[in-house]
TrEMBL record:
Protein name: Dicarboxylate transport domain-containing protein
Top-level taxon in the UniProt lineage: Bacteria
Provenance organism: Prosthecochloris marina
Region Disordered, residue ranges: 442-461
InterPro entries in alphabetical order: YdbH
């Protein structure tokens, strides 16, 4: 590469000098003189539509030069370059030379300052790179010596070419905004000293890549240990808008390999794309990243080998509630020193050079240590019709739950390792997830401590509980999908979930269902739960579908109960005097509106026959009147054949429960049929909050008279 640049500079200088000398001596025969001057060299020059501007300049529409670089110890093959200058103006000015002598009109030695200006300059390597610049300016100095007769020799003395806003294309890579100044002279043995090289932007396959404003010191000084190599020193570049550095970049032309180590030093995470957040005071991430990323580039393949990325203390990801308050964060492990976030990071990316239907950059492989486990991925698959890249990210034993923290009214302790696969697709700068599967053998405990209800505040189902609630879960299994617009579906299943308060414990076995999040574009607070079911009290509770507005606390659905043991319901209500067998099933419609809870009319019936035994003490029987004694006696061993109940509740919590019992007591009145109707009225708000009911049914039994038919 060094020789290519040197030959290019020499060729450009020859072109300018030969053209100037030809026009200065015999303008009419300029082309033939140019041909004679370059005869025997590997350079050919063609000039068209030229004109002479006095004795100090020429113009031309087009100047084209073709030159070859031969193979040498640093390059294994020759290359042909074509240089084209459009609408050029070449000016020269003669300098007084005190040592020169003149014979006649033509001096013995003539020193000229040269300047070439043009609309554009283009350099093309056949089958390779292409460089262009608008409005170039090239200057130089040359001594012309007249030999015998009209034989001339020329000796270049200096050469300057300042590239401003140039463009370089190599295969499907394009570098824009190139600035660099060539300054070489005879005294410096025509070696370019290190100068600042800057590149404004990089594009791959027509798309911008997140690398910009590259700067480095670059020169042609030869390294004895790497004669053929090219080295860029003191390099820096904007990575996703943030400055990253590397002490040097080395290029080996024999191996056609570029290598460097990118150094990250306190990179602000909140300034990276995707972490800025929608509000300045609510970033999705806080903290800083540091690390080193060794990179090699060869045969259109980028390789990252054994990279390490560290998170400084306090680094975390943040998620916010609808009110804009933090509710979940993922933090780095507590430490005074930076924590190794990604270790032994290895990745391979391919740059497409041939097929326009393939992406500019494609993932080939990825593996890294992450939070005590590993992340890995195979090659990406490209859909040319949809311009979409897809790959599968594999997680193994990631200790993610242990780094999760809850905020606000919630606190938790989450444990376990997460494993699974996440199929990702990237299209038009957006990502989608298709049926990701994540599972854990871990468990967790979440404490909910809501603010206490203010005095005089209206009592609703969403009013503060009289005590804290603790939720525990175990072995979550999730299947997740997300489209490019953010619509998310989570198919979940847990081994167990328990809610415990001072009033009692609610346990759900194998709860599962489907959550839809952000599916309503104009109402992101709407979530949907469908196909929910769970083991409940040795039976089953289910919800076919419910849409719940988290902002307005509104929803309408139907609660389905099946095979619920009657005794479990009685135990839940705190009834100690009644023993019952059999199971019930039913459907209970539920309406939540303006934070008020309503049950229009629900039903719950026995799905088989059973037994009810109401225990009384001798003292209770002795104190009872005749009607109540009959009730006690009938329910002492009641074999029901039919149990029908209905329930309704108004928004203020006042409820009516109606029970219809039909059956017999073999030891009561010779087993004649008994019909028993009970009405229970009470406020169910506290029941719905604490899952504990008073002994209203027991009171109803004591207050109702027995009806016999």
């Amino acid at each position: 590469m060094k020789w290519v640049l040197r030959i290019f500079i020499a060729a450009l200088l020859v072109i300018i000098t030969v053209t100037a000398v030809a026009w200065l001596t015999f303008p009419r025969y300029a082309q033939s003189l140019i041909d004679r001057a370059v005869e025997g060299t590997n350079i050919s020059i063609q000039i068209s539509n030229s004109g002479l501007q006095g004795l100090s300049g020429i113009t031309f529409d087009r100047l084209e030069a073709v030159f070859d670089t031969p193979p040498d110890s640093c390059t294994n093959s020759s290359a042909r370059y074509r240089l084209t200058v459009h609408n050029g103006k070449l000016h020269w000015k003669s300098l007084q030379n005190n040592n020169s002598s003149a014979t006649g009109l033509i001096p013995k030695i003539l020193s000229l300052d040269l300047e070439l200006e043009a609309d554009s300059i283009n350099i093309v390597q056949e089958g390779g790179l292409s460089f262009k610049e608008s409005n170039p300016s090239v200057t130089g100095n040359v001594n012309i010596t007249r030999k015998e007769g009209l034989t001339f020799t020329f000796e270049p003395e200096s050469f300057q070419y300042g590239i401003e806003n140039g463009s370089l294309a190599i295969n499907n890579l394009r570098f824009e905004g190139i600035n660099y100044r060539f300054t070489i002279d005879r005294k410096g043995e025509w070696i370019q000293k290190p100068a600042l090289l800057s590149v404004a932007s990089l594009h791959s396959d027509g798309q911008s890549v997140p690398l910009a404003n590259f700067e480095a010191l670059f020169g042609f000084t030869q390294d004895p240990e790497n004669i053929c190599g090219i080295t860029f020193k003191e390099c820096s570049v904007d990575l996703f808008g943030l400055r990253a550095k590397t002490p040097r970049i080395d290029y080996d032309p024999l191996e056609e390999e570029t290598s460097f180590t990118l150094l990250l030093d306190s990179l602000p995470l909140e300034k990276l794309p995707g972490f800025k957040g929608t509000e300045p005071d609510r970033p999705f991430a806080k903290g800083e990243l540091s690390g080193s990323i060794p990179i090699e580039f060869r045969d259109s393949v980028i390789r990252i080998h054994n990279a390490t990325i560290r998170a400084n203390p306090g680094t975390k990801l943040m998620y916010y509630s609808l009110e804009g308050l933090p509710w979940l964060s993922i933090i780095t492990p507590a430490s005074k020193n930076p924590h190794d976030l990604f270790t032994n990071l290895n990745a391979t990316f391919a740059l497409n050079n041939e097929n326009a239907n393939l992406p500019g950059i494609a993932l080939k492989s990825l593996s890294t240590g992450f939070l005590g486990g590993t992340l890995s991925s195979g090659p990406a698959v490209y859909d040319a019709a949809r311009q979409k890249q897809s790959f599968i990210l594999k997680l193994e034993n990631i200790h993610l739950p242990e780094q999760m923290r809850l905020h606000g009214d919630f606190k938790g302790s989450l444990k376990g390792e997460v494993s699974g696969t996440v199929p990702l697709s990237i299209m038009e700068g957006k990502f989608a997830i298709n049926n990701a599967r994540l599972s854990s053998k871990g468990n967790g405990s979440i404490l909910h401590t809501p603010p206490r209800q203010k005095k005089g505040e209206k009592d609703t189902i969403f009013s503060s509980q009289t005590s804290d609630a603790t939720y525990t879960y175990s072995e979550p299994d999730l299947q997740l999908s997300r489209d490019t617009e953010g619509k998310t579906t989570i198919d979940f299943e847990l081994k167990q979930m328990t809610r415990k308060t001072s009033g009692g414990t609610l346990e759900l076995l194998s709860p599962k269902g489907i959550l839809d999040l952000w599916h309503v574009k104009n109402n992101p607070s709407m979530i949907s739960l469908s196909e929910f079911s769970a083991g409940f009290m040795d039976g089953l509770v289910a919800i076919e579908h419910v849409d719940f507005d988290m902002a307005k606390h509104t929803a309408e659905t139907e609660l389905i109960l099946d095979r619920i043991p009657l005794q479990k319901l009685l135990d839940l209500q705190g009834m100690k005097k009644i023993y019952a067998t059999g199971t019930v099933r039913g459907k209970i419609p539920v309406i939540i509106k303006d934070q008020l809870f309503e049950i229009p009319t629900g039903n719950m019936d026995a799905d088989q026959t059973g037994q009810i035994i109401y225990s009384t003490t001798p003292e209770e029987r002795a104190a009872a009147n005749e009607s109540l004694k009959l009730t006690y006696e009938a329910l002492s061993n009641f074999l029901y054949s039919e149990l029908i109940s209905s329930i309704s509740m108004s928004p203020d919590g006042q409820s009516v429960i109606r029970l219809q019992l039909k059956g017999v007591n073999p030891s009561f009145q010779e087993g004649r049929p008994i019909h028993l109707n009970l009405n229970v009225e009470q406020n169910l708000l506290e029941l719905l909050k604490s899952l504990t009911i008073s002994t209203s049914i027991e009171q109803a039994i004591s207050e109702k008279a027995l009806q016999q038919q």
